Sequence to fold (350 residues):
Amino acid sequence: MNTHESGSARGTPAGRTTEYRVAHLQDRLAAGELGELGVRVEVRGGAVLVTGTVPSAGCRDEVLSTVREELAGLDVHGDLVISEPSSPDHAEELS
Amino acid sequence: MIRIAAVGDIHMGPDTRGVLRPAFDTLHECADLLLLAGDLTRHGTVEEARVVADEIRDLAVPVVAVLGNHDHHDDRQDEVTAVLRDAGARVLEGESTVVRAGDARVGVAGTKGFGGGFVGASAGEFGEPVMKEFVRVSRHCADGLRTALERLDEDGCDVRIALTHYSPVPETLAGEPLEIYPFLGSYLLAEAIDTAGADLAVHGHAHAGSEHGMTTGGVRVRNVAQPVIGRAFHVYHLPVRHPAGTRSGAEAVTG
Fold:
């Protein structure tokens, strides 16, 4: 008697597989209103970490809103940084 | 000494209108020219390009730009280019331009470039038509860059800069996932730079990458993607190896 549960033989609903949901989210971010903007989405244990730099606070809110909508039911930790628009305080001397 | 200000990946849109202008208005104090290393917009729309145009219009220093992949997304790259040129930017694709900085003539050769990867892990012109086309596009961009750099050498420029969006070397990608390196740059760009010679190579594209790198031939490479440099722009001071003295020449020639 085989009591081993074989997920692959019976199929796993794609909507329940975190890895595929994250991949689809990245497709949506790339094709969406914001473009992908270098936002990285990583699965860390049971949660999802969203990192990167975006041009404005509005972009940050929109990305995180999209992530939370697409990954509903998962813990989402956002750590998106807003681009710094100030002048540099030094130059690099190239010999 | 030439003072080169550079930034890429500013990804402007209506909600960031005017954000960079205060910093750009200080350029005359610290730089002789401003290089824009592509991905100036988010989707390459004309509306976004107009935001960029307003950001750079009537700056006190010449602006030289290449487009990035985002600037191509809406398939309106020609219109985006026209909007930026109307604002005074010299937008290069397989072309060069010469900027005067005091007595020195600074040549900039530019191309967007493309992917394909780096030595030991690069795509080849083989297999499906779309795969061959991918590599051909990358090779075409690199050929354009090499030709433009060679033209600047023939013109007797005191300093030559290679400006691209995609990276010529893997070092400045450090921090990005290794798996996506083939989409971030191509060794063909570095080969073109080393073959023709240059004093500095500037690129963007890799938001999570690193600022410093060097080609096999010893040309310094800087990734100026705004998330990498963490400022509105960075400034690099390049020595002039052959002072131009009183030599005269065209103020600006794009070809």
Observations:
- Helices of chain A lie at 7-10, 18-31, 57-70.
- Chain A has a mean pLDDT of 84.
